[in-house]
Amino acid sequence: MKRKWSKFERALAITAVIGAASACTAAPAQAFSFLTPWNGPVEVKFINWEQETPGTGNGNGIIDAAGEQLDGILKIKTISAANSNSTLLWFDGKDGEELTGTFSGYTAGNVAFNPFLGALEMDFTGGGFNLYLDNTPDFDATYPGAGVTDGILFLSAAGATGIHAFDNPFTAGFDETTATLHSTATGFTSPFTGNGTGYLEITGGAYASLFGVDTFGPGRDLYLNSDFSAPGNDGWPVKSDDPVIGTVVPEPGTLLLLGSGIIGLGLMGRRRFKK
Hints:
single chain, 275 residues, alpha+beta, 2 domains, 11-stranded antiparallel beta sheet, 2 helices, 16% helix, globular
């Protein structure tokens, strides 16, 4: 004799089927997961290999004049929770995966020496990156880079304004409020050193929904704060690293599963009430 399911059991079963179906249709073809579930701020540590885009400047490999463009390749080292323990969420090589990519389009709008800071200041417009998830690691940073863009598009982002709240009236011909990246070169001996900060807006990728939006204001989803030096490594003129700050949010499949469960239990309760 078959055992009859209760209405509560049927509601849960329906919920599970809906959740499983939504997960199957929403999940990208290639898996990616954290070591431990996390919802909140994250710190993404990376290494950049960069240069003055060929044909946009004087050919010395570094940005030292307005109109020159910046491009390069990158590799993610770790993703950690931005908490007191810096809980490790992902690392290069986890599950045989790597996260690598390219960045380009950062155009120098203003390059000037600031005597008050004793530093060369550079403001860039535009720019962005594409990051790829690859489960057959073959990244080679040796100039000009290889195995950088294979795999699936994990995340893409475009430079976002907001790093300058006001325009500097002393830099005629350039409006600082349009800058997406601000760099300051403070060391002029070898190695040439400095720091860059900017914002990015997430624009696409298979895992775009994993990250929160407007974390730092409208259109500013990620915050970049990197140190750079020249000469770089592996034949590149400049290198830079660490970190990008953002937030991780619950995956849409998880939210849909939770919502389906609430709806299922609600319908069951409504039927009971009617009886």
